[in-house]
Design brief:
Distance between the termini: 18 Å
Shape: globular
Order of helices and strands: HHHHHHHHHHHHHHHHH
Helix content: over 70%
Largest sheet: none
Number of strands: 0
Strand content: under 5%
Number of helices: 17
Structural class: mainly alpha
Radius of gyration: 20 Å
Length: 407
C-alpha cells in the first residue's frame, strides 16, 4: 500500500531566484528548456510536412501528438525507473535516446509510416525521461518550492513554445522540414550536455529494482486511492480535449496556425506566472475550478467562424487556463509518498500526454466529417462537461487530504 502522507521538509526559500541559485535545478531546468524548444520545432516541422503531403486534418493532428500515445506504455511498464537508485544515469541515457529519435526525423526521404514509428518510440522513452526528471525535481527543491519550480518549468515551456512556433514558421520559409528537425536535434544534444554536466547522482535513494512488477505494484496503489483518481482525471481529460482543439489550428487556419499556437503558449505563460508566482497555495486551490473552465470555454464559439483577431484573443485567454494543472499537481504531490514520487509524477505526465494524443485523434477524426471549427467547438464542450461533472470528486479529494493530515 502507498502511504498517504510524506515527511515534512525544512523550510527553505522558494522563489524563482532561490531556485536558480540551486545548481542541480539549473541543470534540470536548462535541459528541460532545450528539450521543449527542440520538441516544438520538430513537431511543428513534421506537422507541416504531413499537411503538405496528405492534406489530412487527422494525420496532421496526429503528427503533432502521436508520440503521446506511447507515453502510456511507459507509464504501464517501466516508469518505476524514475525512482531507481541511479536517476541521473537513467536520465542521461534517456536523453541520448531522445537525441537519436529527433535526429532520425531529420533524415530526408523517410516514409510517413517510419516517421510515425519514430514518434512512438520517442514518446515511450520521453515519458520515462519526464518521470525521472520530475522525480529528481522533487528531491533537489524543497517541498514548499515545488509549485514555484513547476510554475517556472511551465512558464518556460510556454515561452519556448512561443519562440519555437515563431522560429519554426520563419525557418520553414527557408529550410525544409527535415532541416528544421536537424536544428531540433542540435538543441536536444545541448540539453543532454546541460543535464550531464550539472546534475549529481542521488544515490541516497532506497534501492528499488525497476521493472514491470514494481511499476504495476505502485500503479495499482496509485489508482486504488479515490482522491488520486479524481485528480488524475482532471489533470488528463479536460486538458487533452483542449489540446485536441489546438491540433486543428493548421487545418482551421493554415496561414495563421503559427500565430494561434504562439498565442496559446503566451496565455499559458501568463497563467502559470500569475498562478504559480503571485497566488498562495490556498488561492490556487480556490481558483482551480474556474481555471479549468477558462481552459475550454473560449473555444466554444469557433464553429461561428469569427474574425481572426477575435480567434487569436480567445486562444490566448484559453491558454491561461492551463495553469489549473498547478494546484492539482500540488494536491497530487501531497497525497504521494517520497519513495515513489518520480513514478507517480511520471504517470501523471504520461497520462496527460496520452490524453493530448487522444484529444488530437478525436478532434482530427471528427474534422474529417465536419468543419475544423465545428470539431473544435465540440471538443471544448466535452471538456467543459467533464470539468463540471467531476468537480464534486475533486472537492472530495481535497477533503480527504485534509482529514489525513489531521489524523
Amino acid at each position: 500500500m502507498l502511504p498517504d502522507t510524506s515527511a515534512p521538509r525544512t523550510p527553505a526559500p522558494t522563489g524563482y531566484r532561490a531556485l536558480l541559485r540551486n545548481g542541480e535545478f539549473v541543470g534540470l531546468y536548462a535541459g528541460f528548456t532545450l528539450t521543449v524548444a527542440a520538441s516544438t520545432l520538430s513537431g511543428f516541422a513534421l506537422a507541416n510536412l504531413v499537411d503538405r503531403q496528405t492534406r489530412s486534418p487527422f494525420l496532421t493532428a496526429m503528427s503533432m501528438y502521436a508520440a503521446t500515445f506511447a507515453a502510456v506504455l511507459g507509464a504501464l511498464t517501466l516508469m518505476s525507473v524514475a525512482d531507481g537508485s541511479r536517476p541521473r544515469r537513467v536520465l542521461v541515457a534517456l536523453q541520448c535516446v531522445s537525441l537519436l529519435g529527433v535526429a532520425g526525423q531529420a533524415v530526408p526521404g523517410l516514409a510517413l509510416t517510419v516517421r510515425f514509428g519514430l514518434l512512438l518510440v520517442l514518446g515511450f522513452f520521453q515519458s520515462l525521461g519526464t518521470g525521472t526528471r520530475l522525480g529528481l525535481l522533487a528531491e533537489v527543491v524543497p517541498t514548499a518550492g515545488y509549485a514555484s519550480a513547476r510554475s517556472l518549468l511551465n512558464i518556460t515551456s510556454g515561452g519556448m513554445a512561443i519562440l519555437g512556433y515563431a522560429i519554426g514558421a520563419a525557418l520553414l520559409r527557408y529550410l525544409s522540414p527535415q532541416e528544421v528537425c536537424t536544428v531540433a536535434a542540435v538543441l536536444t544534444g545541448l540539453g543532454l550536455l546541460a543535464v550531464a554536466g550539472t546534475v549529481r547522482e542521488h544515490s541516497f535513494r532506497l534501492t528499488r529494482r525497476p521493472g514491470l512488477r514494481q511499476t504495476w505494484t505502485t500503479n495499482t496503489a496509485l489508482f486504488s486511492h479515490p482522491g488520486r483518481r479524481a485528480l488524475l482525471l482532471n489533470l488528463w481529460v479536460p486538458n487533452g480535449l483542449v489540446v485536441g482543439c489546438e491540433a486543428l489550428f493548421i487545418s482551421y487556419a493554415p496561414e495563421h496556425a503559427g500565430a494561434l499556437l504562439a498565442a496559446g503558449s503566451a496565455g499559458m505563460l501568463l497563467g502559470d506566472l500569475t498562478v504559480g508566482r503571485l497566488l498562495t497555495a490556498e488561492q490556487r486551490r480556490r481558483f482551480a475550478f474556474a481555471l479549468r473552465l477558462l481552459l475550454a470555454a473560449p473555444y466554444l464559439p469557433f464553429a461561428l467562424h469569427l474574425p481572426m483577431p477575435v480567434v487569436t484573443a480567445a486562444v490566448f485567454v484559453a491558454g491561461t487556463g492551463f495553469a489549473a494543472t498547478l494546484p492539482l499537481q500540488e494536491q497530487l504531490l501531497a497525497l504521494t509518498p517520497e519513495p515513489v514520487r518520480g513514478q507517480v509524477q511520471g504517470v501523471e505526465s504520461a497520462g496527460r500526454m496520452t490524453w493530448q494524443g487522444i484529444g488530437a485523434a478525436a478532434a482530427g477524426g471528427l474534422a474529417q466529417y465536419v468543419t475544423p471549427g465545428t470539431a473544435i467547438t465540440t471538443a471544448a464542450a466535452v471538456s467543459v462537461a467533464v470539468t463540471v461533472l467531476s468537480r464534486p470528486f475533486v472537492t472530495r479529494a481535497r477533503a480527504v487530504h485534509v482529514e489525513e493530515a489531521d489524523a
